[in-house]
Amino acid sequence: MLCYGLMTIANVVCPPSCLLCRRACITATAVFCDACRQDVRAPSLPLCQCCGAEVPGAFDARLLCQPCRRRPRAFTVARAPFTYETTVRDAIHAFKYQGHHRIGRWLALGMSRTAEATLPLASITRIVPVPMHWIKRRLRGDDPVASLAQWVAGSLRLPYDPRLLCRTRWSTSQTRLTTPQRFRNVEGLFRTRARSLVDRAVLLVDDVLTSGATAESCAWSLRAGGVREVFVLTAARAPLR
Ligand SMILES: [Zn+2]
Ligand SMILES: [Zn+2]
Q1: Residues with CB under 5 A from ligand 1 (ion)
Q2: What's the pLDDT tens digit per position in 16-58?
Q3: How far is the CA of 21 from the centre of ligand 1 (A)?
Q4: Least crowded by CB within 10 Å, which of 52, 139, 165, 187?
Q5: Proximal ligand: closest to the CA of 239
Q6: What DSSP state is assigned to residue 212?
Q7: Topology classification of domain 44-237
Q8: Which ligand has its closest atom nearest to the C-alpha of 86?
Q9: Residue boundaries of the structural domains of the chain
Q10: Which residue(s) pair with 208 in the sheet?
Q11: Ligand 2: centre distance to CA 240 (Å)
């Protein structure tokens, strides 16, 4: 009670500021101010049943976006709590490159809620992050995607396994590549460390799903190792281009 009272006094004297724009937040536990919070958006229905992309105006019984129709995915379903734009794009950047752990926790909370609402958690046997190259991890000193996966695993009470997948080589960033280049760039990029896996389903975690190339490359490798189904959970879903 005393602690809460002291916190309230501290918030009046020095209100918490938005982790993105530094404006004052109204509530003590808020990560963002009202203006930044207003730009946070969940993907609007209807969504592609597979990759979670927004497919405006589509009402098919088996609703798939154009890329998923053209090319069947190696993963079963991908979902994300947020669209990759404005506040969420800045938030992911601040978490990955400025080490804002409170933002990471906020992203992970959104991811856990989305997983509970949309994914078959009872069949998932472990949560696996998209792996960072071990040299990059050493150079950075942290692995933000692994942190997200660990927090999500903790809140969903599912086993976390950061060692199941590894990168077979150093690769260039996907950011500036076209979609076909992205798929070529990650071909054979991941390897499953164990063989003859008996997992019914694995939940793969990444920060953003754009073309789905990285998630797909990981999913192929997990399925080649024996996993029956791969579900994908990211903090954000980029709109279809
Ligand atoms: Zn703000
Ligand atoms: Zn799709």
Answers
A1: 18, 20-21, 23, 33, 36
A2: 899 999 898 877 778 999 999 999 999 999 999 999 999 987 6
A3: 4
A4: 139
A5: 2
A6: S
A7: Rossmann fold (3.40.50)
A8: 1
A9: 1-38, 44-237
A10: 236
A11: 9
